[in-house]
Specification:
By secondary structure, the chain is an alpha+beta fold. Helix content is about 45%, strand content about 15%. The strands form two sheets. Strands 3-4-5-2-1-8 form a six-stranded mixed sheet, sandwiched between helices. It has a two-stranded antiparallel ribbon with strand order 6-7. A hairpin with a 2-residue loop joins β4 (about 80-85) and β5 (about 85-95). The longest helix has 26 residues, at about 150-175. This is Nucleotidyltransferase domain-containing protein.
Amino acid sequence: MRTDDDFVAHVADRLAALPGVVAVSLGGSRAQGTHEPDSDWDFALYYRDHFDPAGLRAVGWPGEVSELGSWGGVFNGGAWLTIDGRAVDVHYRDLTVIEYELAEAEQGRFRWEPLAFHLAGIPSYLVVGELAVSRVLRGELPKPGFPEAMRTVAPPIWRRQADLGLRYARAAFAPRGRVTETAGALATAAMQTAHAILAARGEWVTNEKRLLEGAGLREMDAIIARLTPDPDVLAEQIDAARQILESAETLEPATGH
């Protein structure tokens, strides 16, 4: 079994050798030092304009290798692999797209995209944030800071989406005793508000795993746990959630995020 350092070097070398790849990075909790013993390993291979996943598939690592674009949007594909007994994610990243999204973010422009495993979806600037928090292993990559324009523009957009979701839940779900729909609306609004809070602080978000902790919104768990099919209870908890989320902007940054 390779040591962690040898393992990272081995994977980086193999990825960097693939046709079209110009840089390789290590991201996620492993790059930031916040990983657990069973955390997976997140690598990204950067190419410009074209990459053929068949090259990665030909390496022979067991797992699933997607085609370009199969994950949709800026998060355009990757692989779930097992390498030396370790769970490894490999993300495909087109540098031409990254440069465009960075230029957009610097002007305070972004769009929202749905993505599997993300309740609130993702902002298009997420792939720029990956660069900011990752460790470059091979090649050269930019290290962007959080754009000042985005600190102003993004928070009200996220908060507006959260507010609309809660209003709809209050009007359409609560009176009908819809527990599941209400729980979904509350969870989504919490994630959206967390995006708003971290954007206002100038902190990058790359996934939702620690998003509520980072925004200080873990108390939303108690709100959701109190839901019952009683319409009055649902209405009360939606109102309680609104109070928590609307006042959350005064929270101090969480340490370790």
